[in-house]
Automatic annotation (TrEMBL):
It comes from the Eukaryota. GO terms for cellular component: cytoplasm; nucleus. The keyword Cytoplasm applies. Its main location: cytoplasm. GO terms for molecular function: hydrolase activity; metal ion binding; nuclease activity. Signal peptide: none annotated. This is Putative nuclease HARBI1. The lineage of its organism: Eukaryota, Metazoa, Ecdysozoa, Arthropoda, Hexapoda. Residues 163-313 form the DDE Tnp4 domain. Belongs to the HARBI1 family.
Length: 369
């Protein structure tokens, strides 16, 4: 450090007197610490404008302060310390805009380094509450309610969740493994798997795989597969697209339906599975930071993805919807560009049996009506 200072001033002598003068001059040249005024958003905006800018209501923000405020408290209030409420509001503003962290910090009179630290501390504090807000149904009664809600959509039986993956764009992480994060669309991303219920609530989330990893690989290495294979959720199934291998517990659509019953099966499967696409749309629209590109270090990407998913579920539980959100709209599913897995005879037989028993009878019921 001493030699660096001497080189900066182009001084070769290291005498005690000259060195002391150099240090004094260096200290005097340092920028003075600036304490910028902070305007309290709770008092500045009314309820509608506040929710539009921070994506949550004032009531929910204050509830968050009581839930995670103790994890965000500073040991002292000296040097204009940032309060838990200010930390949460800054983080929500970053989630709601998707801009650079410095822009969010400027709105709250904070430096870039302070804003960066605050955003990631709050994100990790929210992630601690993961098990309370993101979980598969735990009881038989809860499973029954989830299955009943799915049945109301298009009469598909015994569905406990719709599964799919979505790519969250990130900056190139650099290093030897950077290309692992390049997906098939030639962008860097985290391939995030989610299981969603009929109310667009995220029931299971995996956000740790690079963008080049296939959806089926993520599922095959997840705890969810063990959970549903062991029938801990009863005799229920998931619905997925043809990027997943057909299983008794993971039903995919037919590639080329021929009969009326097969077409009815495909229509019911696709309409029921549509909830996962809608959930991704609502999630990314509420928090554009994950809908555009996360401009943060790779180690900070996962906490932001998980924390925004938790907040998405909190909004659903508290019945908070954005003014421009159309929760009941239907998303037209895109053409499947990824690899479609070959279907084994046993799994095909099980699906065909379901079509020939349940969907044929359902087709007959609809014809009589």
């Amino acid at each position: 450090m001493n030699l660096n200072i001497l080189r900066y001033f182009d001084v070769e002598s290291s005498s005690e007197e000259e060195y002391g003068n150099i240090i004094l001059e260096y200290v005097l040249m340092r920028r003075a610490k600036i304490f910028r005024p902070r305007h309290p958003p709770l008092e500045t905006w009314d309820d509608v404008d506040f929710c539009h800018r921070y994506r949550l209501s004032k009531e929910t923000v204050l509830w968050m302060v009581t839930e995670i405020g103790n994890d965000l408290k500073t040991p002292t209030l000296r040097n204009n310390a940032i309060t838990p409420l200010e930390q949460i509001l800054l983080t929500l503003r970053f989630y709601a805009t998707g801009t650079m962290q410095q822009c969010s910090g400027d709105l709250f009179g904070m430096s870039k380094s302070a804003a960066c630290k605050v955003i990631h501390c709050v994100s990790r504090a929210i992630c601690i509450k993961l098990k309370y807000f993101i979980s598969m149904p735990r009881t038989a009664e809860e499973v029954k309610d989830v299955v009943a809600n799915f049945y109301k959509i298009a009469k598909f039986p015994s569905v406990v969740g719709a599964i799919d993956c979505s790519h969250i764009r990130i900056l190139s992480p650099g290093g030897d493994n950077a290309e692992l994060f390049r997906n098939r669309k030639d962008t860097f991303s985290i391939n995030t798997q989610a299981v969603v219920d009929a109310e667009l609530r995220i029931r299971d989330l995996v956000a740790r795989w690079p963008g080049s990893v296939h959806d089926s690989t993520i599922f095959n290495n997840s705890r969810l597969k063990v959970l549903i294979e062991s029938q801990q959720l009863g005799n229920c199934c998931l619905l997925g697209d043809r990027g997943y291998a057909l299983k008794k517990y993971l039903l995919t659509p037919l590639a080329d339906p021929q009969t009326a019953a097969e077409r009815l099966y495909n229509e019911s499967q696709i309409r029921t599975r549509n909830v996962v696409e809608r959930a991704f749309g609502v999630w990314k629209r509420r928090f554009p930071c994950i809908g555009s590109q996360l401009r943060v270090a790779l180690k900070n990407v996962q906490p932001i993805i998980v924390s925004t998913a938790i907040l998405h579920n909190i909004c659903i539980d508290r019945r908070e919807y954005l003014a421009n959100d159309n929760e009941n709209s239907t998303v037209h599913l895109p053409l499947e560009e990824h690899l479609a897995f070959p279907e084994t005879a046993n799994e095909q037989q099980y699906r065909q049996q379901l079509i020939e028993t349940y969907f044929v009878s359902l087709l007959g019921t609809e014809a009589r009506q």
